[in-house]
Every structure is written in structure tokens, then in C-alpha cells.
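Re: the multi-chain job from yesterday

Posting the exact lines I submitted so nobody has to dig through the queue logs.
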Amino acid sequence: MSQEADPTLYIQHHLLNLSYAFGKPGGFWTINLDTLFFSVMIGVVFCFLFYRVALRVTSGVPGPLQNVIESIIEFVDGQVKETFDADSSLIAPLSLSIFVWVFLMNLLDLLPVDLLPTIGKAMDLHALRVVPTADLNTTFGLSLSVFALIIYYNIRIKGGWGYLKELLVTPFGVWLIPINLIFSLIHEIVKPVSLALRLFGNMYAGELIFILIAALLPWWSQWLLAGPWAIFHILIITLQAFIFMMLTIVYLGIAHEGH
Amino acid sequence: MNINMTLFGQMITFILLVAFTVKYIWPPITKAMAERQAKIAEGLAAADRGKHELELAQLRATEMLRDAKIQAAKFIEDASKRGSAMIDDAKMQARAEGARLIELAKNEIIIEQANAREALRRDIASLALLGAEKILGQHVDADAHEHLMQQLLTEVKGD
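And the result, C-alpha cells for all chains:
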């Protein structure tokens, strides 16, 4: 694939979403079909796997799949309980779905960069981007949902007035309310933005490096770089999923306690 | 690369996913895990209890054994004591019986002796009477000399 076309075009094409525009092309009323499709598919896989186990769950000797899923749940539960001592009946499952969903979506990055796009081409799709987490819409979708939860918990725990007071008077006290407000707003808004951009940046860069390797090297030498990078990427995708989950827990934990 | 409507799609997907996890995935699995934990804890506790009970039973067994030994020793001692007591009793009884028999025999001898003496005395008296008759040449009326006879008898008895 690398030799057949101009590398720049190849790369650009690989960074193009399969999208459908309701308004003008490239505007806000566009929908990235590939991102949605793959994330929903991954979500379904996640639900299917876990639900299968949840249906047949036994407190006796667990089967291999139950064993794996239990260890994931135990890991997530441990992380949540470590940073969070209030009621975690929403936070813990939320963290689990973030961790597993993000991890599985990241995992798509390890598929050969041309595999699914080639199949897509055979199906007459004009473009196909596989990794949903390398799309800002996904990462912001996640982080803004988490942000909404942060605000919800802040208001629920501290009350609307308490939260507002916290935004206004920290960190400098009552006399510097305008500066406090700016600080607090930045402080709060940075949370979803950093969550989203961190995951997006890592996955986008990872994907781009795979694409570059595929675009610039002859096919017989690509494994020399793509192999090590893929192995390294296993670490990154796990780590990014973990960081996203962990920061969500931490942010929600902060929302539960006053300054 | 742009933010577009997909954002909302992803948010909805995420919310559905979380809702599904909260409702159908998390509770049964964690419940089973907690149950297993409880089971394991229970099993461990039961094992501990069993061990403890075994120790107690062993202790009880050795105690019972010791008691039994002590009791057996006591029985043996009692038995031997009673045995010797019975032998002593029997000896004493035999001795008493022997003494009684000897006493009886002695009494009998005394009585026999007395009887013999009496008979002898009577014989002597009659012999004396006979001698006296011979000497006097006439019949001595025993009744007339009853007094004399009695005196004689008393004298004979005296020796």
C-alpha cells in the first residue's frame, strides 16, 4: 500500500473520518460514522462479555472468563475504594466501563492500519478511521460526561450554594472573589479538557506513527519499527485507559470533599 | 478532526454503557465475589474451629486416659487392701474360733475332771464306808452317819 501512492495523500486519507454531514460538509452537524460504529461495537462487545459472566456468575469456583473479569472488577473496585470512601455504587461501575471501554477502543489501534480501511474500501466506503479514541469527539464525549458528573456530585454533596461558595472564595478568600472565580473556572474546566486531550493525543500519535511507518517504509521492513512500536503501544493503551479511569475517580473524589 | 455531532453520539453511547454496567454487570458480579469472600472466610473460620476442637478433644482424651489410669490404680489398690483385710479377718476369726474351741475343750476337761473327782470321791467314800464296816464288823447305816459322810466328803474335796 505504501508504494502505490503519494505518502502525504495516504496519510491524509488515513486521518479522514467516514462521515455524514447533515449540514455543510465538515460543519458541526456532521456525524463520524466510523467512530460511532466502532465505539458502539466495542461497547456491545464489552456488554456482551461482562453480561454473559454476570448471568452465569457463581460464588463457587469461577470459570476462566469469570476469573479474568473478576480480577478486572476487583482491580477497579480496589482503585475506587482506595481513593474514595463515600457511596461508590455509581462511581465504581462507571470506572469499570471507562477502563474497559477505553482499553478496548484503544486496542483497535493494534490492528494493522490498513486492514479495516482496505475492507472498507472494498465495501465502497470513502474513508475509514478505526480507533474511536483517536477521535476528539469520543474523548470529549467521555470527559464531558465525567465533567457533568463532577458538577452533579459537587452540587449534591455541597449543595448549590456550597459549590458556588467554593468556586468563589477558594483559593484566596472572600476579598478576591473575581480572581478566585477565574482560578476556579480554569481549575474545573481543565479537568475535562486535559482528560480528553491526553487520551486523544496519545492515541492519535500512536495511530499516526503506525500510519507513518506504513506510508514511508517498504513493506518488507515495516515490522522492524511497527513491531516494537506495537509492543510499546500495548503499554500505552493500557496506561491511558488506566489514567482516564484513575483521574475520573480522583476528580469525583475531590467533588465529594470540600477544600 | 473537528468536534461535531459525533460528540453527542459518544456521550449517549457512554451513558448507556455506564447505565448497563451499573444495572446489569456490576451488582451480580460483585455480589458473587463478596459471597465467595464470605464463603472463604467462613471456611477458614470453620477450619480454625475444627483445629481448635480437635485440640480440645485431644486434651480431653488425655485427661480421660489419665483419670482412667488413676481409677484403675485405685481399684487395684482397693482390691488388694480388701483382700488383705479379708485374709486378716479370716485369720482373726480362725484364731477366735480356735480359742473358743480350746476354751470349750478346757471347760469340758474341767467338767470331766470334776465329774471324775466326784465319782472318785464317791467311790472313796463308799470304799471308806466299806472299810469302816469291815473294821467295825457291823453295818454302818449310811443314813445315820450321813453327817459324818458329808464331813468326810468335804475333807476329801478339800485336797
